Amino acid sequence: MGENIEKKSVLLIIGGGIAAYKSLELIRLLAKQGIRTRAILTRAAKEFVTPLSVASLTGEKVYDDLFSLTDEAEMGHIQLSRSADLLVVAPATADLMAKMATGQATDLATTALLATDKPVLIAPAMNVRMWQHPATQRNLTTLKDDGVMTIGPDEGDMACGEYGPGRMAEPEAICGAVLDFFQKNAEKPLKGRKMLVTAGPTHEPIDPVRYIANRSSGKQGYAIAAALADLGADVVLVSGPTRLETPRGVTLKSIESAKDMLAACEAALPVDGAIFAAAVADWRVETESDQKIKKRDGQLPHLCLAENPDILATVSTLGKNRPTLVVGFAAETQAIIENGKAKLAKKGCDWILANDVGIGTGTFGGDENQIILLTDKLVEEWPKQSKEAVARTVAARIATYFQGDDV
């Protein structure tokens, strides 16, 4: 497998505009994605953000002086411009764009941009009239012809009091563009593979206003779907009711009940791999009332329960439509490994990802998870980590499996 996003690095060139303060949030967002950032400040940028504030967020020395002998000895401007995987200019002022378009090298920022052999992404930011000026638009056309990527500017109120296009794109959008670039250019070990993921709870209706459910948030399943899509897989996500956004590049099929989930999973087949992260309700009310069950003093309603379809076992024991790899989850509150092994044997799946969802663990609804990977050959305990980190590990192991390496 090729390098993942966590090993990527960005050289951020901060231009001298009021939007420079947004670069600090951009650095934070990139760091959350595991992307290393070095920064160059133009002389004008230091009027808006300080080298100390930038350095405290990047954890790296901030560069600003083209003629610093120390910097030249440690990392010359040529090496600095080529040591990153991507150069990002944010904000890209009208002056910086003009210098880039005409090939000027008057300071460290423009010298690095001229000397680089790496891709460049700019986030323009300037007064609306400056943005609309023919000279700026000519420079923009030149830069695009040279292969420079752009994001924004957005339309809105300006610091100068005017309104129109010229606001720098928000840090979240710039971070998203950086991630999209890396993902599009990264090795995609699951490209051409179709994956099915289930997530969230199911709601089993009692009457029009009540239902049986559980505490699952869907976060782990959604994160796994996103991680598989990042590795190039064509992902169908069958999800019970959640408040989560659909991950980029993922096809969402929303359902309510366990019966609905099974039908949606069967409709998605055939797939190469299926990961059943949903917390499906084991039981449903045998006969759903079509009217609200009224409360009667001293009388409790009698609910007859029926067993829901076992989606994991059903898919695991299919004939020719069985996925090559079937992964189930075992949400347990005691004897995690023993119960997980029993589920592996009973369901007929290939892997079980067992986890402790007992009171106090914070797994259901929380942002962290601790997984024990169980197969017929191994028991592998993973450290407690974010659900996104768990998802990336799961996706990487699945990619390894499909590359022919047994787990």
How would you characterize the overall build of this protein?
The chain has 407 residues and is an alpha/beta fold. The chain has 2 domains: 5-185, Flavin prenyltransferase-like (Rossmann fold); 194-402, CoaB-like (Rossmann fold), CATH 3.40.50. The chain has 14 helices and 22 strands. It has helices at 22-32, 51-58, 69-74, 77-82, 94-102, 108-115, 128-132, 134-145, 171-185, 219-230, 258-268, 311-316, 336-347, 387-402, and strands at 9-14, 36-41, 62-63, 86-92, 120-124, 149-150, 154-157, 163-167, 194-199, 204-207, 210-212, 234-239, 250-254, 273-276, 283-285, 305-307, 325-332, 351-356, 368-369, 371-374, 379-381, 385-386. The strands form 6 sheets. The chain has an 8-stranded mixed sheet with strand order 13-12-9-14-17-18-20-21, with helices on both faces. The protein has a 6-stranded parallel sheet with strand order 3-2-1-4-5-6, with helices on both faces. The longest helix is centred in the last third of the chain and has 16 residues, at 387-402. The radius of gyration is 26 Å and the shape is elongated. The two termini are 15 Å apart. The mean pLDDT is 90.
Structure, briefly:
One of its GO terms (cellular component) is phosphopantothenoylcysteine decarboxylase complex. This protein has 407 residues and is α/β, with parallel strands linked by helices.
List the helices and strands and how they pair.
Layout: E1 9-14, H1 22-32, E2 36-41, H2 51-58, E3 62-63, H3 69-74, H4 77-82, E4 86-92, H5 94-102, H6 108-115, E5 120-124, H7 128-132, H8 134-145, E6 149-150, E7 154-157, E8 163-167, H9 171-185, E9 194-199, E10 204-207, E11 210-212, H10 219-230, E12 234-239, E13 250-254, H11 258-268, E14 273-276, E15 283-285, E16 305-307, H12 311-316, E17 325-332, H13 336-347, E18 351-356, E19 368-369, E20 371-374, E21 379-381, E22 385-386, H14 387-402
Parallel strand pairs: 1-2, 1-4, 2-3, 4-5, 5-6, 9-12, 9-14, 12-13, 14-17, 17-18
Antiparallel strand pairs: 7-8, 10-11, 15-16, 18-20, 19-22, 20-21
Helix pairs in contact: 1-2, 1-9, 5-8, 10-14
